[in-house]
Amino acid sequence: MKRVLILGSTGSIGINTLNVIREFPELFSVEGLSVNSGIDILEQQINEFKPRVVCVCEEKFAVELKKRIGNKCEVLSGKSGLVKIAADYDYDILVGAMVGFSGLEPTLEAIKKGKRIALANKETLVVAGEIVTKLCKEFGSEIIPVDSEHSAIFQCLVGEKISEVSKLILTASGGPFLTRAKEEFKKVTLEEALNHPNWKMGNKISIDSATMMNKGLEVIEAHWLFNLSKEQIEVVIHPQSIIHSMVEFVDGSIKAQLSLPDMRLPIQYALTFPERLKAEFVKTNFAAIKNMTFFEPDFDKFECLNLAYQVLQAGGTTPCILNASNEVAVEKFLQGKIKFSQISEINKRALDEIENHLLPDLETIFECDNVTREFSEKLID
Ligand code: MG
Q1: Domains defined along the chain, listed by start
Q2: Is the CB of residue 196 less than 8 Å from the CB of residue 174?
Q3: pLDDT per residue over 293-329, tens digit each?
């Protein structure tokens, strides 16, 4: 029986993780759950999965939850609760499904405990990839990617040597604005930007998919997960999202991992690796799919993708600057305070004007995150 701790249990990855766990009650139990503020869904999850502990990041919702559930389970709160839940409780696998930079601290705690990390929170690797991968080695912790592209690559690499890889090919659906002209980006509505063609996801990642920032973050994530250079990580547009990504080897042979899009597959794989369990989430019928198409991404139109390659080259705190600025800009777009086209402009300004610190320690990264948030918020105001 594996005990699972899910950080971000009411988001789409969190809910799908519980959907997988529900299928295998004899294999998995839920040790703990965390949410930002969504206590209504959390309460249902507590009743169904009976975790030992939960953490609600926003204090007032933690107080409200305690009133509702009595002593059904322990309730922690705030940032300190999140660190405590990852550091002090007994679990085998941490599912990192939180949004953004906030996933970093609890993930580091789990790594120091030598736990398996099923990682969906790509920002953790984007902002602190060097530190995270170093600590994993030191403490014997393994990161199994949940992001569908990285899960695909991870699966393609089973039984292979990384030294025999010539490149990774990350597929991208291209998001909702694949065929829209760049000049039209000023007029994009929130509803259009949230309407992803192939995946149903949370707001932040849906907007990141529309700007292709998500693919940019994934390029950086792939760099740290698989230890390959930026020249070895390529993005190709594949609107059907059937091939989840590919690996090309030195002999020219290519392996791909395919299925109809369904996040339960990579989640389950991250929980059960190196085993595979029988599941009937999706059945892929190629005759019904008929066509798979591919083309190059438009780096001029999707400036955020370009910026991601630039920060991968520049290193230091630039990935942290890009991530923090983007988190602020996306939040402001979701609030209707800026235009869609301004997201990439704000990110670019932050990178141009905030100083890069090479070889940052954790403290420098936290400071850089703060400084950038302030900068981008001021810029928008
Ligand atoms: Mg992805």
Answers
A1: 2-145 (3.40.50.720), 150-261+283-298 (no CATH), 315-381 (1.10.1740.10)
A2: no
A3: 999 999 999 999 999 999 999 999 999 999 999 999 9
